[in-house]
Every structure is written in structure tokens, then in C-alpha cells.
Design a protein that fits this description.
transferase, transmembrane, Aminopeptidase, alpha+beta
Length: 328
């Protein structure tokens, strides 16, 4: 029988053992990862004789005294992680417990491993999103053939630019690239707390030996592009990246991604580009031969009518203020 557990009630060793044994293994769901991106997270847990058999992390936030669920930064997916095949009735029972205790969720993303169970439910509260996966279980030569003509051209161009790839354990250059070249493009700006979280998350990932940080350097040794990758559960997640004008022009990130693909070719791993649903970015990632894979976002509002109307009005105002862009 699943039950809601407060943060202090969660047995984290039992939790991580369940995630590790599940068919949906993801680094996002491990307790130490959640501790960084969603301090105080709660959970729905099904257990048998002290062994967690099925778990669902809940990234809980509070505003105006209301507890609600909100997908954390650096955490594209969560959902239900089960030692056995997830049954539809299990998913329904977990959702019921969540909605009894949390009346509002502007967006909670279930992992791709939950999609087959959830798609049969035809719930209007679910919206389909996509990430991009590239299976690496082929020799590099075959994977390279899956690149588009333009990507092959740009890769060859990058190789002629005398750029150098290095591995590093210093994330500050990557954050600096993002601050100087991308932050101003983010609507509403970037809270300093997000950078603090990234620092803490990277430190934790290094300690757990799941992180690889790769930079592209120019002839003068200057960092012009960088990418952070997380390895766990058969997935390589492209979690964070940035480049300056020179790095973009000289295809520094193309060189980095090709390097990751080449060094992990002929393995059973999947490169998850963690793609946002923005056409230009998705197009870039698909040029490496990746394919869209669906996952579901759960959005609901069960607040009392006055609060619900207030939330709806606020959402509509924000949408009008957002800069025009294509939505996937």
C-alpha cells in the first residue's frame, strides 16, 4: 500500500536501492541528487518488509502557505521508479495520494520509462513533451553516418580549426561562459541561486563519479565551449553547456558532442540530449542522428476556486509577456 512520506521519514539507502533496481534508473531520482535540486523533497513509497518496491519523488515547494509540486532545475524528468513493471493501477494509486496532499502542480515530468504505462490513461492533465535520445550501441563509423550532411560538414570544419578538447573538474569556466553569452537570452534572467545549485550539484556528481566535464580550447588556450555530462543507469545526460561567439562559430560544441559519441560508441548507453522543445535547439541535436522520445508532464490545479482563478490569470499574464517563440 503506497503512502506519503515526509523527508525525514525516507530511508535513503532503501530509496537508492529501489531506484538502482528499477527499470527506470535515472540519476535525477537518487536521494543525493534530489537533496541538492529539491531540499526537503517528499515521496510516495510502496514498501514490503522494509524494502522499497516502488517510489515517486515529490519536489515540494511552498508559496503563500500552499504546498505544491514544481519540477526542479537540472532535473528534466522524475516520475515513478519500480522494481517490477509499473502497472496502470499502481500509477493511478500514486497519483491519487499526490493529489490528496498537494492541490497544485504547474508541471511535474514523468520519466520516459513511465510513458508506456501513462499513455493508456488518456488523462487530460498530461501533456506530451519530448527529449532526444541517441542509442550508442553501434560502431562510431555507423553513428557518424547518422549525422546530417550539415553536421558532418561542421564537424570537419571544427577539426580544421585547431581546437583542443580537454577534460576538467573546474566548472567555473562553463558557468562563466553561460553568464557572459547565454544568461541575457533567458527570459526573466537567471537567479544567482541557480548557479549556486549547479556548483553544489557538480560537486556531488564528481564525488559520486558520474560527471564528465569537457571543454574546447582555442589556440591561445582560452575556453570557448563546454559541456557537462552525467553517466548513470545506461544514460549519458547532456545536462549543461555553453559557448561564446568564437565557440559557436567554430562549432566547439559539435566537437564536444562528437567526442562523447566516439568514446562511448559500441556500448549499450543512450545519449540523452535533454532537449528543450525549441525547434532550433532540437534541430541541432537531431542532426547527430538522435530521435524524439516522449514523456509526460502532469499539470493540475485543484485549489479552491478563488485561488485557482488567481493562478490562471497570473499564468495568462506571464504568457503574454513572454517573447514570441515557437513552441513544440
Amino acid at each position: 500500500m503506497p503512502q506519503l512520506l515526509q523527508h525525514k521519514e525516507i530511508d535513503k539507502a532503501a530509496w537508492d536501492a529501489c531506484v538502482e533496481a528499477s527499470g527506470q534508473r535515472q540519476v535525477y531520482a537518487l536521494s543525493w541528487y534530489l537533496d541538492v535540486v529539491s531540499p526537503g523533497w517528499q515521496a510516495v513509497v510502496e514498501q514490503e518488509r522494509g524494502i522499497y518496491t516502488c517510489v515517486m519523488p515529490l519536489p515540494v515547494r511552498r508559496k503563500f502557505g500552499i504546498l505544491y509540486l514544481q519540477q526542479p532545475l537540472f532535473c528534466q524528468q522524475l516520475g515513478i521508479y519500480s522494481r517490477q513493471e509499473l502497472r496502470q493501477e499502481q500509477a493511478v494509486a500514486f497519483q491519487a495520494i499526490v493529489q490528496r496532499n498537494f492541490k497544485y502542480a504547474p508541471g511535474y515530468a514523468f520519466c520516459t520509462g513511465n510513458s508506456s504505462s501513462l499513455q493508456r490513461m488518456a488523462d487530460p492533465q498530461f501533456h506530451t513533451l519530448y527529449t532526444l535520445y541517441l542509442g550508442l550501441n553501434k560502431p562510431y563509423g555507423q553513428l557518424w553516418k547518422g549525422y546530417t550532411r550539415d553536421r558532418k560538414y561542421n564537424l570537419n570544419k571544427a577539426r580544421r580549426e585547431n581546437l583542443r578538447l580537454i577534460q576538467s573538474q573546474d566548472i567555473e569556466p562553463l558557468i562563466r561562459l553561460f553568464r557572459q553569452n547565454i544568461e541575457h537570452k533567458v527570459y526573466g534572467g537567471v537567479d544567482e541561486a541557480a548557479y549556486d545549485m549547479l556548483h553544489r550539484l557538480y560537486t556531488a556528481c564528481v564525488e559520486k563519479s558520474v560527471a564528465e566535464l569537457v571543454y574546447t580550447l582555442d589556440e591561445l588556450g582560452r575556453v570557448v565551449a563546454g559541456g557537462l555530462f552525467l553517466y548513470y543507469g545506461g544514460y549519458i545526460i547532456y545536462i549543461f553547456n555553453a559557448a561564446d561567439a568564437s565557440g559557436r562559430k567554430r562549432n566547439g560544441r559539435t566537437l564536444i558532442l562528437d567526442h562523447i559519441i566516439q568514446q562511448n560508441a559500441n556500448t549499450d548507453q543512450i545519449l540523452d540530449f535533454e532537449s528543450p522543445m525549441i525547434e532550433s535547439i532540437a534541430g541541432f541535436y537531431q542532426s547527430f542522428g538522435s530521435v524524439p522520445v516522449p514523456f509526460f508532464e502532469w499539470e493540475y490545479n485543484l485549489l479552491p476556486q478563488p485561488l485557482r482563478l488567481l493562478k490562471q490569470v497570473r499564468r495568462q499574464v506571464l504568457l503574454r509577456l513572454l517573447p514570441c517563440q515557437k513552441r513544440g
